[in-house]
Amino acid sequence: MTLLTHWPLAGLRLTTPRLELRLPNLDDLAVLASLAAEGVHDPAVQPFTVAWTDAAPEQRARSVLQYHWRCWGEWQPEDWELNLAVVRDGSVVGTQGISARDFSVRREVGTGSWLGRTHHRQGLGTEMRAAVLHLAFAGLGAQHAVSGAYEDNTASLEVSRKLGYREDGIERHVVRAEPAVLRRLRLTAEQWQQQLVVPVTIEGLPECLPWFGLE
């Protein structure tokens, strides 16, 4: 018996030309916590609806650890959130998530991510989201992927544009006690096929399929 016997997600790997995405181990989580403490965006703006990055550095670090552990502990085939460490040249640079509820019926996933500030503006956001979209569409048979970004989050909106997402309406939220407009975005399997911009390989998926609610 090994860890993979009981937790096959630990063997899942997504590889792009520059990146490897994998379930983080404890050392990876420590690096992610440190990156969060150092900052993941310009403090003058807040790209997240849950403003976890407004906390003090040590609180940001702890919240990263607790969030990953909570997602592990609450995993169910009908309600899951997979948060992968993004590794470049052997170093963890950020995290890319993909999640779904009732995936076996709805065939729809959502995504979310962040990078340490020193790793911004290098095209990594596009590459890491392309990796989980490949997992969703090619690996799991998704029909739709959804995302969202506030109007001032031009980097996230640009990633979505590059990958073929289309506008899917707006939502009004409160961020830092002010109204904020979130633009919803949607990508269909057909649109994804037409916009394949990053080669991706998947390892270790067959053993994980029941964990995603699939036979």
Task: Outline the structure in words.
This protein has 215 residues and is an alpha+beta fold. The protein has helices at residues 3-6, 26-38, 57-73, 103-106, 124-139, 154-162, 189-194, and strands at residues 13-15, 19-22, 79-88, 91-101, 108-115, 144-150, 166-175, 178-188, 201-203.
Average pLDDT score:
94
The succession of helices and strands, N to C, reads HEEHHEEHEHEHEEHE
Number of strands: 9
Q: Provide the spatial order of strands within the biggest beta sheet.
A: 7-8-6-5-4-3-2-1-9
Estimated share of beta-strand residues = 25-35%
Structural class: alpha+beta
Radius of gyration: 17 Å
| Low-pLDDT runs | none
- Main β-sheet description: 9 strands, mixed
Which outline best applies?
A: globular
How many angstroms does the end-to-end distance come to? 22 Å
Total of helices: 7
**What percentage of residues falls in helices of 4 or more residues?**
25-40%
List keywords for this structure.
single chain, 215 residues, alpha+beta, nine-stranded mixed sheet, 7 helices, globular
